[in-house]
Design brief:
By secondary structure, the protein is mainly α. It is about 75% helix and about 0% strand. It contains 13 helices and no strands. It has helices at about 1-45, 50-55, 65-70, 80-110, 120-125, 135-145, 155-175, 180-190, 195-205, 205-225, 225-230, 240-245, 255-285.
């Protein structure tokens, strides 16, 4: 009896080994596919002239960090205000993240406790995604002009929050339904107000979903360019995204400087992602499960 069992287990082990090998190969292919653009950017940034990518060399003959030093010490004239522009980008990203988390958590706190109607309201909020962001540029421009917010960082923040909140409400609502309603009822029996329930019970238990939504909002604001270009005009309010786009206006621009600036500009969101990746995976997984 032992010989047939051993024979029956062998195909199962082979299938499991083949499946594991396939997963590893797929992961390697995807990793190389993701790293390939980064590799080409490093080629350009490390080359003294910034043209290694166009010569076919797999590595610069005389790699140098001069482009990165030029960005960090603002030596190139396009990057004379790099740190101030980076501060503007940080302000837009952080405020978008904070407001999205605040508005989304307050809305989901109410919607996840409404019986019925919460799903209808949250679904209606997603209608904004049916309209391309490009179609809302002119209405947003007129609205910000009417409120006197043109050439203000708050105008961009308002636009970014508008597009991030519907997704935040949807994720936080479904995640909030995983929190037993009995916890709210027990807290109210003990004399807790709705605000106390929100601060002391709801927010701590929502930490994984809040981390996922906050990171999404920050990345949305960090990578956004169109509304920054339309709503910001003065040099003091420009962001790194706008400055990087201006490099394309000059045909003689050495490509190593904008590429080096792009690589440095990508570091903050990458650092944030690795800092909260455990919470993000938990929030996205549990937030999509209907409670």
């Amino acid at each position: 009896m032992s010989v047939p069992r051993a024979r029956s287990r062998r195909p199962h082990r082979l299938r499991r080994l083949a499946g594991a090998t396939g997963v590893v190969l797929l992961a390697v292919v995807l990793l190389l596919w993701w790293l390939l653009p980064v590799y080409h950017m490093m080629l350009i940034a490390l080359d003294p002239e910034g043209d290694t990518e166009f010569t076919g060399d797999i590595w610069p003959t005389a790699p140098t960090l001069e482009a990165f030093r030029g960005v960090l010490f603002q030596r190139y004239w396009y990057l004379q205000d790099f740190w101030h522009q980076l501060a503007n980008s940080f302000f837009i990203g952080i405020m978008t993240m904070v407001l999205t988390v605040l508005i989304g958590s307050l809305a989901s706190f109410a919607l996840s406790r409404i019986r019925p109607g919460g799903s209808v309201i949250s679904t209606a909020a997603l209608v904004v995604y049916m309209v391309p962001a490009y179609f809302l540029v002119i209405p947003f421009y007129l609205l910000m002009h009417g409120y006197g917010l043109m050439d203000s960082l708050w105008a961009v923040i308002a636009a970014d929050v508008t597009f991030a909140v519907p997704y935040a409400v949807l994720i936080l609502q479904w995640y909030g339904r995983l929190i037993p309603i009995e916890l709210d009822e027990a807290a109210r029996v003990d004399g807790a107000s709705p605000g106390q329930v929100y601060v002391k019970i709801y927010l701590p238990l929502m930490a994984p979903a809040l981390a996922a939504v906050g990171t999404y909002a920050l990345l949305t604001a960090w990578n956004e360019y169109l509304y920054q270009f339309i709503l910001l005009s003065s040099p003091r309010n420009k962001t790194v995204a706008i400055t990087l786009a201006t490099f394309f206006d000059n045909e003689d621009t050495p490509w190593n400087y904008p590429v080096a600036a792009s690589l440095l500009y990508a570091l903050p969101p990458i650092a944030l992602f690795f800092a909260v990746r455990r919470y993000i995976s938990t929030g996205l997984t549990l937030g999509g499960v209907k409670g």
